[in-house]
UniProtKB/TrEMBL annotation:
Residues 164-331 form the Endoplasmic reticulum vesicle transporter C-terminal domain. Belongs to the ERGIC family. Residues 13-98 form the Endoplasmic reticulum vesicle transporter N-terminal domain. Keywords: Endoplasmic reticulum, ER-Golgi transport, Golgi apparatus, Membrane, Transmembrane, Transmembrane helix, Transport. It comes from the Eukaryota. This is Endoplasmic reticulum-Golgi intermediate compartment protein. The keyword Transferase does not apply. It is found in: Endoplasmic reticulum membrane; Endoplasmic reticulum-Golgi intermediate compartment membrane; Golgi apparatus membrane.
Length: 377
């Protein structure tokens, strides 16, 4: 009884077989089928290699949401060299809340030489080339995000020559913590002093002829300092054409959370618009000589996440490639074979000529084929 039930079960399973096997004696091979099979296998191999390279690659996913964090402090990372001596310039921040952050809280004034050494000039040239490529090809920013903490440092390398030239510039570098509101970071003549209505700079003690706000921005970023990230103003150099010249940078800061397979950081991206003009009160161009960076924070926060294709999706795509090529090549081969057979048959039918008619004495013709003679006796 059990054997009978087992045989019924096996026969039922065999009837459900969706892949019936054809005996090899009934399989006919051809040269055209072999050629199509070779093309199909080659195509499958190439597409499999390409699909595997896509599976190994990663991409950056951008998500946007409202920034709800307004209580924390914003860090500003600064490395700027001004072509004036350190005792003549002062840097500080004044925000919309009329809160002044003095440079003594985190900035260092270091005497330096404004002209770069040959190695430093090469570094600056490469950085400016990268900046120009980033403006043309925005997808390169994803490559920079993925290479963060792995690429070489973007800081200005130290001088390789022992120059005996006296320092003629001031390098202001370090970081400041400010409120997350719009503000103005500026470098101008004289040290900053508190004032009931804001703040002031002791500019009266500095000779007007010594004003020179030619500057080089080696680094400027907001938020957590992430090595390998190139910011829009890194490598910027401006040369003043007049003693009374104002350089303005209008910056929009976008909070950014970066999550890759190597790092997770809370940093900030920013866009910038530049403007410069000569201060001439007689011509109606009013203002104060110096370098002014007016920043404002965006209300949106960007989350950048590095993503990777899951294995199940790669497997499904691979099965689709193999099955699709098998089905498509088989169908194309069948259609091609059918068309060739039709053309060949028409060619063979056209090669037969009609049998010539046999004339009779009375003028009639006989179109019938002659009967075969019966050789049987």
């Amino acid at each position: 009884m059990r054997r009978l039930n087992r045989k019924k079960t096996l026969s039922l399973v065999k009837e459900l077989d969706a892949f019936p096997k054809v005996p090899e004696s009934y399989v006919e091979t051809s040269a055209s089928g072999g050629t199509v099979s070779l093309i199909a296998f080659t195509t499958m191999a190439l597409l499999t290699i390409m699909e595997f390279s896509v599976y190994q690659d990663t991409w950056m996913k951008y998500e946007y949401e409202v920034d709800k964090d307004f209580s924390s402090k914003l860090r500003i990372n600064i490395d700027i060299t001004v072509a004036m001596k350190c005792q003549y310039v002062g840097a500080d921040v004044l925000d919309l809340a009329e809160t002044m952050v003095a440079s003594a809280d985190g900035l260092v004034y270091e005497p330096a030489i404004f002209d770069l050494s040959p190695q430093q000039k090469e570094w600056q040239r490469m950085l400016q080339l990268i900046q120009s490529r980033l403006q043309e090809e925005h997808s390169l920013q994803d490559v920079i995000f993925k290479s963060a903490f792995k690429s070489a440092s973007t800081a200005l390398p130290p001088r390789e020559d022992d120059s005996s030239q006296p320092p003629d510039a001031c390098r202001i570098h370090g970081h400041l913590y400010v409120n997350k509101v719009a503000g103005n970071f500026h470098i101008t003549v004289g040290k900053a002093i508190p004032h009931p209505r804001g703040h002031a700079h002791l500019a009266a003690l500095v000779n007007h002829d010594s004003y020179n706000f030619s500057h080089r921005i080696d680094h400027l970023s907001f938020g957590e300092l992430v090595p390998g990230i190139i910011n829009p103003l890194d490598g910027t150099e401006k040369i003043a054409v007049d003693h009374n010249q104002m350089f303005q940078y209008f910056i929009t800061v976008v909070p950014t959370k970066l999550h890759t397979y190597k790092i997770s950081a809370d940093t900030h991206q920013f866009s910038v618009t530049e403007r410069e003009r000569v201060i001439n009160h007689a011509a109606g161009s009013h203002g104060v000589s110096g370098i002014f960076m007016k920043y404002d924070l965006s209300s949106l926060m960007v989350t950048v996440t590095e993503e990777h294709m899951p294995f199940w999706q790669f497997f499904v795509r691979l099965c689709g490639i193999v099955g699709g090529i098998f089905s498509t090549t088989g169908m194309l081969h069948g259609i091609g074979k059918f068309i060739v057979e039709i053309i060949y048959c028409r060619f063979r039918l056209g090669s037969y000529k009609p049998v010539s008619s046999v004339p009779f004495e009375d003028g009639h013709t006989d179109n019938h084929l002659p009967l075969l003679e019966n050789n049987t006796h």
